[in-house]
Structure formats: C-alpha cells, structure tokens
Design brief:
Structural class: alpha/beta
Radius of gyration: 19 Å
Helix content: 40-55%
Oligomer: single chain
Number of helices: 11
Largest sheet: 7 strands, mixed
Number of strands: 9
Order of helices and strands: HHHHHEHEHEHEHEEEHEEH
Number of domains: 1
C-alpha cells in the first residue's frame, strides 16, 4: 500500500512538473472551490481561531478573512508540489531575499545563525531558496513522514545545492554536528508543542499560547544570533524575504525572551494580512 501511495504521489508530482505556472493556478482555484465550498475542510476550526484572535471584528469580516485564507492556502499547496521539480534558480526568482547581505558579517565571524519563521505566506520555499542567496550553509528541520518511500524522495528532491534537511527527531544531534562551515538553521517555530510541560507561554493574538522551547533553547546553548524571516507575498507565486535581527546574544537573555519577541513580530505581520496565516491548524489546543 505504501508503494502504491508513493507511485501515486510521484505521478502527481510529474503532472505538476509539466504544467507551467501560468496554468497552475487553475488547479489552485479548483482546490479552493472543493475545499472551501463543498468539503468545508476544518472550517469550524478556522472560524473559531479567527473569532478568538480578532474579537473586535464582525462576523462578515471574519468570513471574508476565512475565504481569503482558503484561497491563499490552496496556492501554497500547489506551489509546494511544484517545488519538487523546480530548479533552485527558478525558486530564487520567485522567492527573493531582499537583504541577504544582512547575514554576511555573521558569516565572516565564522558564526552560525538561527533563523525563525512562522506559517505565514509561503514557508515551504524558504529552505530551497536559501542555498544560493546566503553565504551560510542552510539546514532545515522537517517532520519525517511515515511512508518511507515518500520521505526518502522528499529528502532528495526538496534540497538542492548546499542545503540539508534534518529530522526534528534529531534536532540535538543536528546542532552538535560539525558542518565545517557556518550554518543557518531554518526553523518554522510557531507550532503548538506536543506537551505544555516545557512550553513557553505568551500572549499571542489575544490568547494564552503555548510555544515551542526548542529554537530558543538551542540559540541560548550555542549563543547563535537569532533572526526573523519576514516573508511577504508580492503577488501569486512571488514572495520577498527580509531578515530582521531578534537577538544578537541569546546567552545573555532571560528564559522566554527570544520566543516572546518572535511571536510579537509574527503577530504584527498577521494583523496586517490575516488571510496569509495558517488558521486551519489547532494552534490553541493546549491550555495553560
């Protein structure tokens, strides 16, 4: 069964490979119609998250944001599938770093850096586009799939050039490894943790929110500067990324300080363009 799923997946990847971008968004529109209007995928969760996050908005405004979210997330899914067969050059044309030289001084000090981002706009192209746009060696963390055939394919197709994918199950070993050059560790850090026991709690979008402790933990252990990747959508299929310094000396910070700054910065971006955040995730399932 896993082999059948794998070959079906590869066939789907092939279909997306031969479809040019100008035609690709027809499938995005089709997916939006099915998921939003007919299936109603996680609509209850999306609306609940939006109402709790924006208590001052009317029901009409909430539903407008909800519709915009489904339209946008369909684009992200399609773009993620297309990325399996895109060249690094093609990705970089559509996912452009505005200030890659921001990290150059850190690299020349022979120092690694930890880059945090949220599930905002397109977070899937970040690891691919980093290889040729920054001096640091890119190492991205991902959740391994249960289907070993698809997982193996992802490991070999979603990284190009100097980029490396590392399992979140081996996070500690990944940070301990000698990469022989300065590394940029790319972490999508706004997920809900599996347990509230080790979580940092912050006020995020008007709610008590449990956050991951890992990114801050490793930044403080190794004293890696922490930067925020501000991803903005220019138009369909085109994004820009601007790096912003969150903390230059994590070892000197208090527990939760870096995480709090990251979540505040992400919150501001979400407030500006709420339709581009991942509202279908059960972000607030844990309670303090």
């Amino acid at each position: 069964m896993k082999r059948f799923t794998y070959y079906s997946f590869r066939f789907l990847v092939f279909i997306f490979a031969i479809i040019p971008f100008r035609c690709l968004y027809f499938f995005s529109w089709l997916m939006f119609l099915i998921v939003y209007h007919f299936v109603g995928y996680r609509k209850k969760i999306v609306l609940e998250n939006l109402r709790n996050s924006f208590p001052g908005k009317t029901e009409k405004e909430i539903k407008k944001i909800s519709r915009g979210f489904y339209f946008h997330i369909a684009d992200v899914v399609i773009e993620s599938m297309k990325a399996f067969t895109m060249t690094e050059k093609a990705v970089c044309k559509r996912y452009r770093f505005l200030n890659a030289d921001f990290l150059d001084d850190i690299y020349r000090r022979n120092q690694s850096v930890l880059c945090v981002a949220g599930h905002f706009n397109n977070w899937e192209w970040g690891g691919i586009a980093t290889g040729t746009q920054v001096l640091h060696k890119p190492v991205g963390f991902y959740q391994p799939l249960s289907n070993k055939y698809i997982d193996n394919y992802i490991q070999h197709s979603r990284v190009q050039g100097r980029s490396v994918l590392a399992s979140v199950m081996n996070t500690s070993a990944t940070f301990q490894k000698d990469w022989e050059e300065p590394v940029i560790y790319y972490m999508v850090a706004d997920q809900s943790p599996s347990s509230p026991r080790l979580a940092y709690w912050v006020k995020f979008l008007n709610q008590d929110t449990a956050t991951l402790h890992g990114p801050e933990k490793y930044a403080r252990i190794y004293n890696f500067p922490v930067v925020y990747a501000d991803v903005q959508k220019v138009k369909r299929g085109y994004y820009t990324v601007e790096f912003k310094m969150l903390c230059e000396n994590p070892a000197q910070t208090k527990t939760g300080e870096i995480t709090g700054k990251f979540m505040q910065m992400l919150e501001q971006k979400i407030i500006e363009n709420p339709q581009f955040y991942l509202w279908s995730h059960r972000r607030w399932k844990l309670k303090r």
